[in-house]
Amino acid sequence: MYLKSLELSGFKSFAKKSSLEFNASISSIVGPNGSGKSNIAEAFRFVLGEQSFKSMRGKKGEDLIFNGGKDSQRANRANVKVLFDNSDHTLNVDFDEVSIERVVHRDGINQYLINGSEVRLRDIIELLAGAHIGASGHHIISQGEADKILNANLRERRTMVEDALGLKIYQYKKEESERKLEKTEENIKSVESLRREIAPHLKFLKKQVEKVEKAREMKEELKDLYREYFKREDIYLKLQKEDLAARKKGPQAELVALENELEKAKKILAATKEKDSRGEAIIDVESKLKIVRSEKEVLTREVGRIEGEIAYLEKNIKKQKESTSQIEQKTVYLHELEALRKTIDQHASEAEGKTDVAAIKSLIYKIRDLFRNFIESNRTKKDQAAIGDLENELANLNEERKQLDQKLQKQATEETGLNNEYLRLKNEVEKGKDTSLEAERKMLQVMARQNDIRATLNSLQVTEERFVLEETDFKRELGEAGVLLGREATEYESFKIGGEASARSEQLERRRYIEKIKIRLEEAGTGAGEDILKEYTEAEERDIFLGRELEDLDKSAVSLKELITDLENRLDVEFKEGVRKINEEFGKFFALMFGGGKASLEVIREKVRRRRSDEDLDLLEAEGYSRAESEADSALGDEGIDINVSLPHKKIKGLVMLSGGERALTSIALLFAISQVNPPPFIILDETDAALDEANSRKYGDMIENLSKFSQLILITHNRETMSRAGVIYGVTMGGDGLSKLLSIQFEEAVVVAK
Ligand code: ATP
Known about the structure:
The chain has helices at 37-47, 121-129, 148-151, 154-164, 168-276, 278-324, 334-353, 357-380, 382-430, 435-485, 504-524, 529-594, 614-622, 627-635, 660-677, 694-707, 720-724, 747-754; strands at residues 2-9, 18-21, 26-30, 77-85, 97-105, 110-114, 117-119, 140-141, 598-607, 636-646, 682-686, 712-716, 728-734, 740-745. By secondary structure, it is α/β, with parallel strands linked by helices. The chain has a domain at 1-139 and 680-755: Rossmann fold (3-Layer(aba) Sandwich). The chain has a 6-stranded antiparallel sheet. A hairpin with an 8-residue loop joins strand 1 (2-9) and strand 2 (18-21). Bound molecules: adenosine-5'-triphosphate.
C-alpha cells in the first residue's frame, strides 16, 4: 500500500484546490510559521475520520472550512481526499486504487466517500483499521505532541500501543461482539419472559387437549363397540325374522286348509237342512204341476178354435178372389154414394141460380164427370179392399196361433222340469239321513283345531310385535350412533366379529357398556374439541418456536462469549508479544539516541481507587464468579503500560525527571520502536524534531531513513537535516490574502522557504 496524493479544497487556509503528490518514501513540507503546514497534517486526520475537533484545532466542523480572506469569500465546505495505491490489497477492497474522501458542510453535516461512493464513517474506520491506520493517529504526530505518549496515563498508553500494534481491529470486533452479546442477552430475557407468559395458558390448553384426546379415544372405542353391537344385532334380528316366518308358515297353511274343510262341512249341513223342507218342496212342485197342466189344456183348446177360424177365412178369401174377376158382382158402399149425391146436389142448386147457359152447361158437365169418375174408381178398386181386410185378419190369426204354440212349448218344458224335480226330491228324501251327523262332527273338530292354531298364531304375533320393537330400537340406535360419531360408527357390515352368534345376555351387556361410555363421553364435554386442539397446536408451535429461538440465542450468546474470550486472549497474547518486540527496538533506539542507557515498557495493572461494591459482588456471584476471586480481582485494575528509563551516566530514573530534549528523544525512540514493530503505511511527523540539537538531528535523520524502509514518511519540519533526507519537498507559503499556497521545491530552495 502506498500513499499517492492528498487533495484539499476549502479546508482551513487551503481555500483553493491544492494537491500534494507523495512519490518518494520521505516527503517534507516546509514553510514559514503560520503558512498552513500543520493544516496539512490535520487534513490527514480529518480525511481518515478523526472525530475530535480539538485534535484538529477546532471546536466544530465549521472551523475546518476556509473562513474567507482579504479578497476571497469563505467556502461552503471543506473537502479532503486521499488517494492510496492498493495494488497489494492491504485495504480490504477489490480496487487497486482507493480514494477516501470527507466533506464537511457549514451545517456540520459530514459526508464520507470511498472511491466516490458515499459510505458510513464506520466503513472508513473499519477499512483503515485493517491497514493499521486509525483516526486516533499514532502515526500522525501533531506539533507539540511528540511526548504525548509520555504524558499519557497507563491506560491511554496501552490504547496507543494497541492501536499501533494493529490490535484495534480486535478491539472493534470485541466491542461489536459485546454489543451483540448484550443485545442477545436482552433478547434471551424477552423470549424467556414471553415463554413464561404463555406457559400457564399452554398448560391449561394441554390439559384440555388431553381431555379432548381421551374423548377422541373413547369415540374410537365407542365406534368399534357400536359396530360390533350393530353387527351382532343385525344377525340376531335377521335370524329372529327368519325364525318367525318359519314358525308362522305351518299354522297359517293349516288354517287355510281347515277353513276349506269347514266350508265343506257347512255345505253338507246346509244340504241336510234343505232335506227337511223337502216335503214342502214336493208339495209345492206337485201343485205347480197341476197348474201347468190345466193351463196347457186351456191353451190347447184355444189353439183348436183359432185353427177353425183360420180355415174359414182361407175359404172365404179364396171365394172373394174368384168373384172379383166378374164386374157385375161389384159392390158399392152406401156412404160413398151419399157423399157423391151431396156433391151433385151442390152443383145442381148452383145451376138453378144461374141464367147463363154456358155456366149451367159447365155445371152439368161437372156433374156428369163426377158420376163417370165414381163408377170408374169403383170398377177397379172396391173388391181389392175387401180381400185385403180378410187377409189381414188371417195373418193376425196365424200370429196368435204361433204364440200359443210357443206358450204350449214352454208349458211342456216346465212340466217336464217340475216332474223331474219331483222325482229327484222324492229320491233324495229316501237317502242322506247319515251324512248330516258326520258333517256336524267334522265341523266341531275343525273349529277346535282352528282355535288351537289361532292361539299359536296369537302368541307368535306377540313375539313379532316384540321383534318389531327391537327392530325399531335398532334403527333408532343406528341413527343415534350416526349423529354422535358419524357414519363410520354405523358401517357395521364389514366389521369382523369372532363367532357369529352370541347369547342375548352378552349383547344386552354390550348395550349397557355402550351407554356407560356414552355417559363418560358426555361428561368429558368435547364441544370445542377442534378449536382447543387448534389453539393448543398454535400455542405449542409458538412455544417450540420460542424454545428454538432461545436455544439459538443461547448458542449465539455462548459463541459470542467464546469469541470475546478468544479475542481477549489474542489481544492479550499479541499485545504482550507486541510489547516484547517494541521493547527490543525501544532499547536499541534509546541507546542510539542517548549513547547508552536503558528504556523499556512494562505492562502493569492500574491501581484501583474504588473497591467493588457489595452489590456488584452479588451480581458477579450470580453470574458464577467466586466472591473471593472477584474481591481479589477488584483490587487489581485494568492493565496499562508504564515506561522505565535510565539514562547513561546519570542516576535519573523515571520520566518526570527528564529534560525537554530528553523527553523528545525518548518519545521519538519509542515512536520509532513502535513503528518498526508494526509499520503503518505512512507516518506524519509535525515538527517532532523541533527540540533537537544538531547532533541529535543527525541521529534523528538516520533513524528516519531507516524507518522510511517500512513506512512512507511525511515530515513537517524547519530542520535542515531532516529536509535533506527528503525525496520530495513541498513549500507552503501564505501571502497577505490569508491563503496557503503549495509549491514543489528543491532542497536549496527549501532551506530558504523554511525561513
Ligand atoms: P508553524 O510553523 O508556526 O507551526 P504552520 O505552517 O504549521 O505554522 P498552521 O498552524 O498550519 O501554520 O496554519 C495556521 C494558519 O491557518 C493561520 O494563519 C490561520 O489563520 C489559518 N487558518 C486556520 N483555520 C483557518 C480557516 N478556517 N480559514 C482560513 N484560515 C485558517
